[in-house]
């Protein structure tokens, strides 16, 4: 590119990339080459990318040719994601040369029957699948206590690009690391319990966890289908919304999208990117226990400052609210959440494995055996698999699991849902990722936006959570907050 060109790829948004395409300041091939070079340079340190698509440059050239035939093109002409590189968490099935392994060697060489539902939509929109992001192996579910966040056998330990000694969180660790460090334009993650919100929060990016069923999970390695959801991890709210607009909607291969498709608004979600989106919104703050868990004085002061800013932007802040039985909700072993997860994981992973065209393992029992037989690959001297073994010991969704699921439903209805309805709230505001359990057990949406940096430089965010289908309000709130604060900065250079 011409050195006099004012456009820079670092931190560029989807809109800015499309504008550069339209003005012939950038080609998709140049963009892909830039990101591949970034991966070559940074990934040995950060370990955010597990595998690069060997066809990435071919796909980039094809996108450039399509744009030339279309007369240059601009945003929306060929699709909002046309020529935009996307990194996928290593659980999204891709019918190409890449593996889909949940970070484990146990699934190396397995062959999916087709692209995951959201991957089909990305390709149709013209996106370039750049590669697979690293992650907490098997969603950290191999061993809830024995496997660190961001660690997987195939990539090693993911590293926070802001403070290398701090956790990147997980399980969508690589998706957040890679976007934060500008190794890709945008990424996709998944969340069952905090797996989008937490890594986005810890890596100073935007994480959007949609209502369960708003985005298809078909062809995605499952964790617990009643709570699993697919969502964007990006540097800006607008990029996350552009991505959500493409991947949301009905998929005949995922029954949950039938019910949730009623939430998809006519005209999509981009219409809610409103600078005045905080005006008139009612936002609730639950101080106990979320604010009590803040130990960094910079984060505490920042949260207070941002709440004041939210008021200045025209929102009504309802303070000192309470969620019934919140302590129980925040303890997944006590609430029954882990019990339900174990039963659902065994059933759903066995079903997923049977759908593969080819696979070295065909059941959870096979995965456990593979790990035991390959300790040098799966690092079993350091990281055990006791949660897998407990899950294998379950016998489906029996009376105990049904009772736990019913209890969780009641905790949600009598807690978060009741508070939201009683005070007529548009969103709950929480610092960091501390409110994720509340959103998880009800299948509720949430979006986290960068909110500051601690005394050691560690990022933190603010999360806005709402009731099912409240994405339009959450987008208005998050976008207006982002535009009013503009906190995010790229990580420090370390190479």
UniProtKB/TrEMBL annotation:
Domain Amidase: 31-431
One Pfam assignment: Amidase
Source domain of life: Eukaryota
Signal sequence annotation: none
Protein name: Probable amidase At4g34880 isoform X1
Biological source species: Coffea arabica
Gene: LOC113726143
């Amino acid at each position: 590119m011409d050195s006099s060109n004012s456009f820079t790829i670092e931190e560029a948004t989807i809109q800015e990339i499309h504008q550069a395409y339209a003005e012939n300041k950038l080609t998709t091939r140049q963009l892909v080459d830039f990101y591949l070079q970034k991966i070559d340079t940074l990934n040995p340190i950060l370990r955010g990318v597990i595998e690069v698509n060997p066809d990435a440059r071919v796909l980039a050239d094809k996108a450039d040719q399509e744009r030339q035939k279309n007369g240059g093109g601009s945003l929306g002409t060929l699709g909002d994601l046309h020529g935009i590189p996307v990194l996928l968490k290593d659980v999204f099935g891709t019918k190409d040369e890449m593996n889909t392994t949940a970070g484990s060697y146990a699934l190396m060489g397995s062959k999916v029957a087709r692209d995951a539902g959201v991957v089909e939509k990305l390709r149709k929109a013209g996106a370039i699948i750049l590669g697979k992001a690293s992650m907490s192996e098997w969603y950290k579910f191999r061993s809830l206590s024995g496997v660190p966040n961001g660690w997987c056998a195939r990539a090693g330990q993911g590293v926070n690009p802001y403070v290398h000694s701090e956790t990147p969180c997980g399980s969508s660790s690589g998706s957040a690391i890679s976007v934060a460090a500008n190794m890709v334009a945008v990424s996709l993650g998944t969340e069952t319990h905090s797996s989008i919100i937490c890594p986005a929060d810890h890596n100073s990016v935007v994480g959007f966890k949609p209502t369960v069923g708003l985005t298809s999970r078909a062809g995605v390695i499952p964790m617990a289908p009643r709570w699993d959801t697919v969502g964007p991890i990006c540097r800006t709210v607008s990029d996350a919304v552009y991505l959500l607009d493409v991947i949301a909607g009905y998929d005949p291969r995922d029954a949950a999208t039938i019910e949730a498709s009623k939430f998809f608004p006519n005209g999509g979600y981009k219409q809610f990117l409103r600078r005045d989106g905080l005006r008139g919104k009612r936002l609730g703050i639950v101080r106990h226990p979320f604010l009590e868990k803040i130990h960094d004085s910079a984060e505490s002061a920042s949260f207070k400052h941002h709440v004041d800013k939210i008021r200045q932007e025209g929102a009504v802040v309802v303070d000192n609210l309470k969620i019934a039985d919140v302590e129980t909700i925040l303890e997944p072993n006590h609430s029954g959440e882990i019990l339900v997860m174990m039963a659902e994981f065994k059933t759903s992973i066995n079903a997923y494995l049977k759908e593969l065209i080819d696979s070295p393992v065909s059941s959870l029992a096979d995965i456990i055996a593979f790990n035991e037989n390959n300790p040098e690959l799966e690092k079993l001297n350091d990281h055990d698999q006791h949660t897998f073994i407990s899950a294998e010991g379950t016998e489906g969704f029996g009376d105990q699991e049904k009772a736990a699921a019913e209890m969780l439903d009641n905790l949600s209805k009598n807690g978060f849902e009741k508070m939201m309805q009683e005070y007529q709230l548009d969103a709950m505001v929480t610092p960091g990722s501390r409110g994720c359990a509340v959103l998880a057990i009800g299948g509720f949406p949430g979006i986290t936006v960068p909110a500051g940096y601690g005394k050691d430089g560690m990022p933190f965010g603010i999360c806005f959570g709402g009731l099912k289908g409240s994405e339009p309000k959450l987008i208005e709130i998050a976008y207006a907050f982002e535009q009013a604060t503009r906190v995010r900065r790229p990580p420090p250079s370390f190479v």
